[in-house]
Amino acid sequence: MSSIVVTGGGRLEGKTVIQGSKNLAVPCLAASILFDDEVTFYNVPDISDVRGSLNMLRCLGAKTVQKGNTVTIDPKSIKSCSLCDESGVCGGGRSSILYCGPLLAKYGKCSCVSPGGCKIGKRPTDLHQMIFKAFGADSERKENEDNSNLSFCAEKWRGCVIELPIRSVGATESAVLSAVLAEGRTDIYGYAKEPEIVHLCEFLCTAGADISFDEAADRITVNGVKKLNSCCFRLSPDRIVAGTYMIYCCICGGNVRLIDAPACELGAVIDVLKKAGAVITQHDGCIDIAMNKRPVSVGVVETDYYPGFPTDMQSLLLALESISEGSSIVVENIFESRFETANLLKKMGAGIEIEGNTAYINGTVKLTNRDLAAPDLRGGAAVLGAMMAADGKATLSCTEVIDRGYEDIAGDLKKLGFAGLED
Ligand code: EPU
Q1: Strands of 70-74's sheet in order across
Q2: Measured on CA atoms in the order 112, 117, 119, 120, is the torsion positive or negative?
């Protein structure tokens, strides 16, 4: 179990480069199964979720080479279509479900450990399963002692019409990944509009896929192609990591420059932080953010599908509102149990009450550091942010959950001028 000792206090002053996007790396690595030959990705974050994806590809038999932030996958040696190994190497993350579409399209079968609940909600896979069936898969769910495996096979893999009842990011990715090599045309209605979907499609089109977006019709159309061509692709920067460091600057005060930060994908976050009193400018791929007073409460914020305020920034917003002047309300509309962080912030003295999917926050001038355990990836980053501005010294444990998505959060915080971290 890893931990960080945090001594709160001090303004941020500095600059750092934003890592490549986790939520783009995950589907792109799954997409590499669709290729006949090598595919290379640049700017891949060296995080445990990516290492988990590489483990899954190796479980299938693919060759993977990771040199710094460059990753090459050679899928020619894939021999297995099963991600159900006994050691658990392949079943740890939710992303195993994203491998099913490509495996079914290319090899006609697949199995994985059902990626079940985690601390932010139930996270079912019913939409993914509905999609595989629409393309032609038969499914079989085997209950075993400690997990339930999902197995599918398909004799034919044909384009279809998919109507998503929820704008699910993962289900949209599954539909696109399934459609690229399918016979004929696929129409995906009610798709998720997150930037990672657009970038995934850009990558696939670079390799020869035929994908188009019709925003007015709320539809992605994919015309199946026979094969994808070997290619190289650079992953875009991680908007949630950029948003995290912007919130840290608002919580601690200071002046920060984020280099290679996707300002155009952070509109809703920038609007909220401006309300809190931050001065934010953007130029040449950088975001400059300055906060020179105590933040003020931002009123009512509801998480929503893109381009709304992202659920992945909700815990971080709670941390900011906990020390802001005035009262605010944060409503979580995407995941049903993403308020675990509120309980930890309350232990630090935050005035938060949770009713259903709504948090009512009364800002406190100072929080007090307490020994706490990071609850989940973004919740861990949020508690760390709150600890950076709180009185006293304490330990944040279970920080390996933060490493799932942040390449080197301690190193970045040093570059941003925060001196209060010890291993
Ligand atoms: N849902 C279903 N059935 C399904 C799939 C989803 O009911 O088959 C529901 C979920 O339970 C949830 C809603 O649909 O209530 C949206 O979930 P979505 O499928 O969009 O989430 P995801 O694809 O599993 C991705 C990100 C998450 C991010 C969400 C929402 C990746 C690898 N993960 O998850 O990222 O919170 O979209 O934007 O892209 C994170 O980075 O911390 C993280 C959790």
Answers
A1: 63-67, 70-74, 39-42, 232-234
A2: positive
The active-site residue out of 118, 153, 205, 398 is 118
The least confident of 130-144, 264-278, 383-397 is 130-144
Using CA atoms, how far apart are residues 342 and 25, in angstroms rounded to an integer? 29
Distance in angstroms (rounded) separating the CA atoms of residues 262 and 239: 6
Question: What six digits make up the tokens of 163?
Answer: 């109507």
CA-to-CA distance for 383 and 127, rounded, in angstroms?
32
Kindly report, residue by residue over 183-216, the tens digit of the pLDDT: 999 999 999 999 999 999 999 999 999 999 999 9
pLDDT digits (tens, 9 = 90+) for 301-319: 999 999 999 999 999 999 9
Mutate to test the pocket of ligand 1, among 198, 334, 337, 338 (most ligand atoms within 8 A of CB): 334
From the list 203, 235, 207, the residue with the least C-alpha distance to 42 is 235
Would the CB of 303 count as within 6 Å of ligand 1? no
**Ligand 1 closest atom vs CA 166:** 14
Q: Three-class SS of residue 317?
A: helix
pLDDT given for residue 25 in this prediction: 98
Structural contact between residues 396 and 369, judged by C-beta atoms closer than 8 angstroms: no
Alpha-carbon distance of 127 to 190, in angstroms, equals 12
Average pLDDT, the chain: 94
Nearest CA to ligand 1 atom 40: 312
Tokens of 361: 């926050």
Residue 86 has pLDDT above 90, yes or no: no
Structural domains of the chain sorted by starting position, each given as residue range(s) with its CATH number in brackets = 3-19+237-422 (3.65.10.10), 22-234 (3.65.10.10)
**CB environment 327-356: b (16+ within 10 A), e (fewer):** ebebebebbeebbebbebbeebbbebebee
pLDDT band at 118 (very low <50, low <70, confident <90, very high): low
Q: Specify the pTM.
A: 0.97
Distance, CA 306 to ligand 1 centroid (Å)? Answer: 12
